[in-house]
Amino acid sequence: MEIREIGKVKQMDTGVYLEVLPEYQEGLIGLDDFSHLYVLYWFHHLDIPELRGVTVSKPYTNGPDELGTFATRGPVRPNPIALSAAKIMNIQGNKIYLEYLDAEDDSPILDIKPYTASSDILETFTGPEWCKHWPQSFESSGDFDWEAEFNFTD
Q1: CA distances from 39 to 29, 60, 111, 118, 130 (A)
Q2: How far apart, in whole angstroms, are the C-alpha atoms of residue 92 and residue 79?
Q3: Contact, 114 vs 34, CB < 8 A?
Q4: What are the boundaries of each domain within the chain?
Q5: What is the CA radius of gyration of the chain?
Q6: CB 88 within 8 A of CB 97
Q7: pLDDT tens per residue across span 19-73
Q8: Which has more confidence, 151 or 22?
Q9: What tens digit of pLDDT does each residue of 88-130 get?
Q10: Domain 7-148 adopts which CATH fold?
């Protein structure tokens, strides 16, 4: 198996953008017709052997004492791959300017996919009781106190 980086996340004081490598720029044709996208990127700052686990101890304040890594969205996992949705603000050349992205500067981008309602809206979604109070949409999650939901360790 071979995975190729297609660009980098760039976090600036003025905002965030995805910088796609020139050889993949043609892959952006038509993306500006979509309002949102998904970014798959590598948790490069947390790519250390000790974090390539399959269980996590009490990652969420209101959650169970232990969760399997596949029941979390965090970086502790066999392959530190992240998935985030983002609103497209503008595309200029090989740069995709986003409203917000929860990725570190220089995170390697693995893939970009357009958000489509037919594939991405789930009308019958249910989750565990401990996270029922979480926002029910991408738009409302920006005002939510996420820091109160996670148990951070040093």
Answers
A1: 16, 23, 6, 18, 27
A2: 31
A3: yes
A4: 7-148
A5: 17
A6: yes
A7: 999 999 999 999 999 999 999 999 998 888 888 889 989 888 999 999 999 999 8
A8: 22
A9: 999 999 999 999 999 999 999 999 999 999 999 888 989 999 9
A10: Elongation Factor Tu (Ef-tu); domain 3 (2.40.30)
